[in-house]
Amino acid sequence: MIRDYKPDVLAITEIGLIKNDELKVLGHKYDYDFFYQHRKEGDNYRGGAGIFVRSKFAPQMLNISDEDAKTAWRKHLDVAAVTITIEGSDTNIYSVYQHIDSEAARGLKKFLKSVPDNSVILGDLNAIMSGMPKKT
């Protein structure tokens, strides 16, 4: 994808089984920086979120604060976040993977309330719609 189409930003999710060093090497080969975050809890390798950003934008990783890490949304989302400067204005870019569980929708709402206005949110949000019958 990055070799053939050369997007400025590419968000990827469910990267748990991929070795992130390989993705960093791939990114550098095509002049991208790669940022990622894996699921912090659990006994599997599913989930995870990553972002490829063209190096010309000098992307900087946004650290999720310790306070944010303790919030309910953090338990239900994997979030990789960067900031880039475009024409003198900072823009935050988030790659989000929402876990599939009963608390996920509430976690997503809390996350969305926490991001600043100058943000782009991409990813796999595993939409959980109210009113939909639950799986039995």
Please explain how this structure is put together.
There is one protein chain. It contains 4 helices and 7 strands. Helix 4 links the parallel strand 6 (89-98) and strand 7 (119-124). The protein starts with a helix and ends in a 12-residue tail after the last strand. It has a 4-stranded mixed β-sheet with strand order 4-5-6-7. It has a 3-stranded antiparallel β-sheet with strand order 1-3-2, with helices on one face. The model has no long low-confidence stretch (mean pLDDT 81). The chain has 136 residues and is an alpha+beta fold.
List descriptors.
four-stranded mixed β-sheet; alpha+beta; three-stranded antiparallel β-sheet; 4 helices; 136 residues
Task: Give the total of beta strands.
Answer: 7
Q: In terms of per-residue confidence, which ranges show pLDDT below 50 for 5 or more consecutive residues?
A: none
Helix content: 10-25%
- C-alpha-based Rg, rounded: 15 Å
> How does the helix and strand content classify structurally?
alpha+beta
Strand order of the largest sheet: 4-5-6-7
